[in-house]
């Protein structure tokens, strides 16, 4: 038989997660397996990869081997699917994520004296302010994290930019909208042409999806992906931003670098310290340029097909508004109502697309609310509640390797002694205050003090911690450097004590069997413990 050249050009997936192989024989593109098989080969997979599949394989086969070609397609797909399902973000976090989770500090960490830290720098902007914690502090360097806080006034716009590491944003107060410019995704939102014509213009604007958020939401921003935030509410919008600078996605250095696409923001992220004998470019309080400032005018004119006056605006020359600007006119973005969004999204998913990439990457869920009481994972009516966000309820967290925990303690309630098995924990107090104790591997107390609203405490991996709320209660958000952080309890139900036989406990502590029984079964509550001298309150 004559030899025929067939080329595998890609895969496709329908809403039922059936996968199809596409071949080409010269021209045109054919969407069926070569004869004698008239139909598409298909296979059903649950939870297939969200990653785009970029394959271009050539096969030289005879017509008699067409069935082997289809089998080859299936085997290649299975291999690629399972390989990329676990490690989707080749584009977002680098190909070495499979072998390495985090970069470790090149020196030993000195953690004998932890501190409750407050912001060390503040930058005022036209429509708000930004405060940053000292990323060169011993605790932050050891954990490889960075913290900052945005306060955005009503109708304030946080200018778009991207960072060298993934970040989590917790909405402490307010509501707003944001845009996340995912690379390779189409501008699926279009203005209504009739509305534009009624305003005297027939121009149709297009942009990517606009996402709404509210108080209690946890927002995810991958490394290297631009995003902007707008306060559409009447009150101030307060955001806590956590950046994992030792994440494998960051291949520069273990410090936060912010790349702005507009304006001339003050360089509050950079410290004035000299690290390892090298001084950082720029100093605290100095204005920096945006990403277009360093390019020649004539090159930008050619790249954007605009005049020199617009290029000067692009570079942010004479722009003193900093990173949060006031929007005086109507904020002209397309934002469908919630029910319209759901209907539109349903139609989009139900229709077969030519590109499986758009059906997966471009419709990612990048937020999860952990502020609502009905979503609590641990609840004590007299003590409080804890809600978690990990890759189980927000799958994209697996790609950035981060998670978070939202906690509420009622008056004088406690959190049982516990430690996090596989991550550091960075706690930000959102309301109230608590007495916190942290003990290290030598049994020494490395922190014994009050954690107040607006302060941050870094708790290293495996260090044991206890919290007791003040009379006014205590609320916090904790960021963790693992997408599935595991907590081990040392007291109460489901704790280490419950796992030991009574004989082991009695010999561990040189106590009687009756005392061991009281130690093991005396506390019947789990993780959140009711106050001993008050009745607490219900949220």
TrEMBL record:
Which protein family is it in?
A: Belongs to the 11S seed storage protein (globulins) family.
Sorted UniProt keywords: Disulfide bond, Seed storage protein, Storage protein
What gene is behind this protein? Answer: LOC111499130
Known PANTHER family for this protein? Answer: LEGUMIN B, OS03G0336100 PROTEIN-RELATED
Q: Which PROSITE patterns does the entry link to?
A: 11S_SEED_STORAGE
Please give the name of this protein: 11S globulin subunit beta-like
Its assembly, as annotated, is: Hexamer; each subunit is composed of an acidic and a basic chain derived from a single precursor and linked by a disulfide bond.
InterPro entries attached to this UniProt entry: 11S_seedstore_CS, 11S_seedstore_pln, Cupin_1, RmlC-like_jellyroll, RmlC_Cupin_sf, Seed_Storage-Functional
| Highest taxon of the lineage | Eukaryota
State its role.
Seed storage protein.
Q: Which GO terms describe its molecular function?
A: nutrient reservoir activity
The protein's matches in Pfam families, at most eight in alphabetical order, are given as:
Cupin_1 (PF00190)
- Specify whether NAD is a keyword of the entry: no
Cupin type-1 domain sequence ranges? 112-312, 368-517
